[in-house]
Amino acid sequence: MLKNIWKDLTGGTGVEYAVIAMVISIAAIGGYVSLGNEVTSNWETVNQEVTNANKANK
Length: 58
Known about the structure:
The chain has helices at residues 2-7, 12-57. It is mainly α.
């Protein structure tokens, strides 16, 4: 019976596709988080530069 379970390959393709989709999803989420952090950092820099420019003009 155990030999039959190990030889049974039905459903293997679905599992493989699910694993591939999971890896792609994790990579995409990591990329989005990284991009979000970079954009936030850039906006904070722009905000600081504008604040400094306004202080210098007063």
